[in-house]
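Now for a chain:

_____
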Amino acid sequence: MTMIDNNYILLKMINKLREEMIKIGLSEGLNSKNTIKISQMLDIYISKYQKINSTK
């Protein structure tokens, strides 16, 4: 897999998690366990994306 492929996959996952977090946040509340769990996963993916792209 190339760096472009990795970026594409990470961005797709970030967008998917962001959409899911918003959906769950609206239905269950921003402090629900599910919202927080997805938010933490989103943080991990964003951090990976930033780490990969900071070396360019």
Q: What stands out?
A: The chain has a mean pLDDT of 93. The chain is about 85% helix and 0% strand. The two ends are 17 Å apart (CA to CA). The first helix runs from residue 3 to 28.
